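Comment thread on ticket #2218

A.B. wrote:
> Attaching the input chain for the structure job we discussed in standup.
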Amino acid sequence: MTIQEAAQRSGLSAHTLRYYERIGLIHSVGRNDSGHRDYAEEDLRWLDFLTKLRTTGMPIADMCRYAELRRMGEHTADERRRMLELHRERVRARIAELTQDLKVLDYKIDLYRELA
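C.D. wrote:
> Ran it. Output below, let me know if you need it in another format.
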């Protein structure tokens, strides 16, 4: 599929896809006979995972390290798992912070409702 099709299906811009390729987050995408990028379904699955890492706050540098380890093969599975476990703990901590922040907002909203 073309970069435009991959962008549409992944929800990322073509610019972001080129950037991800340039910094090593995605491997060199295959090319068609005319030399244009030719994304595969596997590329979209990987992009979906990268998007989840990004939206949960993983730094780009950590994402690049994870991608590098992935390319190195199965012998890096333990290190990749540890990276994801550490990230999961950061996500859980952020969720706990947001939950507390939400309680404060709810409290304030309830106060304003009582004044009305």
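A.B. wrote:
> Thanks. Noting for the ticket: The chain is about 75% helix and 0% strand.
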